[in-house]
Amino acid sequence: MSSKEIRNKFLEFFKKKGHAIVKSSSLLPDDPSVLLTTAGMQQFKPYYVGKADAVRDFGSKNATSVQKCFRTSDIEEVGDNTHLTFFEMLGNFSFGGYLKKEAIRYAYEFVIEELGIERDRIYVTVFAGDPTTPEDKESYKIWHEEIGLPKEQIRRSGRADNWWGPTGNEGPCGPTTEIYVAKSPEDAKAGIGVEIWNVVFNEYFKDKDGNFNKLAVPGVDTGMGLERLVTMMQGVDNVFETDLFASIIKQIHEVSHDLEPSVIRILADHLRASIFLIADGVRPSNKEAGYILRRLLRRVLAYSSKYDIHADLFTLVLENVNEIFGDIYPEVKNKEEILNVYYEEKGKFAKALSDGLKIFNNLISEKKSQSFVENLRELVGLKKKVFLSGYDAFSLYETYGFPKELMQEFCKEKQIIFDEAGFDEEYKKHQETSRAGAEKKFGGHGLVLDTGELKAGSNEDMEKVIRLHTATHLLQKALRNTLGDEVKQMGSDINPERGRFDFSFTRKLTEEEVKKVENEVNDIINRDLPVYFKEMPIEEAKKTGALFFFKEKYPNIVKVYFVGPKGGSNEKAYSIEFCGGPHVEHTLQVGSFKIQKQESVGAGTRRIKFLIK
Prior knowledge:
Elements: H1 3-16, E1 20-21, H2 45-48, H3 54-58, E2 62-70, E3 86-95, H4 100-114, E4 122-127, H5 137-146, E5 154-157, H6 159-162, E6 163-164, E7 171-181, H7 185-190, E8 194-206, E9 212-225, H8 226-233, H9 246-255, H10 261-279, H11 288-306, H12 313-325, H13 335-368, H14 372-379, H15 390-400, H16 404-413, H17 420-441, E10 449-450, E11 455-456, H18 459-483, E12 489-495, E13 498-504, H19 511-526, E14 531-537, H20 538-543, E15 557-563, E16 575-578, E17 593-600, E18 605-612
Parallel strand pairs: 1-2, 4-5
Antiparallel strand pairs: 2-3, 3-9, 4-7, 6-7, 7-8, 8-9, 10-11, 12-13, 13-18, 14-15, 15-16, 17-18
Helix pairs in contact: 4-5, 9-10, 9-12, 10-11, 10-12, 11-13, 13-15, 15-17, 18-19
């Protein structure tokens, strides 16, 4: 089944069910709170909160769409089997027209009857409930008694998997039910499969005090990633082998010189995404969405230079994009304007590269003019300075758009030491400054929280990073309980989007271990245990059994943070750690915890990235 067939089947199915087919909105959203469109429901926000009338605008309380989306957080991850910047979401939505019974039946019918997936290869999840909100017994009953799905194919999960909530302090929220497809009936019964569809029931409104009140007009918001669905339906190993990418990948491979698959995937993703951004009116610049486009295009141009690709990749891929997507997204057919934007940026990049190369060569010449003794001292590491410092390298990048990849290549050719860590540090500082500037632009006062590990540009950001920070304590304890005392903290980094925790361990965690850790963290969160600290001399603190980061230098008097119990007995605390804070006061304030991915960051060190909702 081709991607075109799947799109058409989806839209026609819901049209027959009384849904208005709504055209995809632009990648440039009307919502000023987001940079680019990231979900199918974004264009429908006004209808969920009563600010717009769906019947007046669409002729129905129910709508369906195939939405163009863009995810900036995944740019650096592109190159593996799954990550993309541009993607499409299939969705059906209801603004008071129907709720659980119809939403579940529609989803089941489409998966089984339209897609032809065997009934015994699916399993579903429903919200298990917690002290704050009750179990979603209605969804369970519909799946089991009305749809007839056996109990072993229905699984109850906590907030991490089956709850959608507002990103801020208040807003619509509710339980979800998710549909998974397994490779075999046995895997389905064991709960081993790929999630293809998330159905959200906006039943509640969370107020500023954290109370969950029933909405007068509940709604349905569903999302199914087209790329993931097509990968499964076409029986291939990854999205780049589907008909959404295959011809683009083949074209790039034919005109390049035996590039690594990861590089070809980066080129394919960035070229396709750039074409859609330009088609929707984004223009290269040094800020906001324009900066994202410039970053994608210049990375493509830098790779073309680095790998000596003389073919005009952009024009070739534009033709492929027109063949694959032209029927559903006619804006990509405006080839002349799209090419004009690209060639203008290519010219600017060539000039920036030329100017930057002159500065680069001057910097290198200055470094090479040092005395023999200074050069020798630098090479053997007796001085911290290197031939091309991170500061100089980032200045080239920021001022002239001189790509990091090309600097690395030129330094390698000239046998120059490149301070990559220093460059990354300067880049990080730049991001923090930009975030603070953006906050000031909207009436703030720069960073409102900056502990080194934790940085926040607004009060909302601060609330999020504090919750994430507490989650790292729970994560470390759950990892040690699951994997053993071999686990020790090796570092962490937290921003408003996600948490990152590095720890000592020698192998990849199994799926079962990941799930066990996730469940333990969410169990502790849902127990609503108190979080508090005591100040004490460091030697006394060590006697409590508190964990501490061995790389850190601590003062004589330290803060020790405890998680639980409600009675305050230190001996029974779930987690005890040296920490300067800040933290939430009770674990329930953390929200639902979800491990996003795990990866290796060196011999004996693993990294976990996680989210909270």
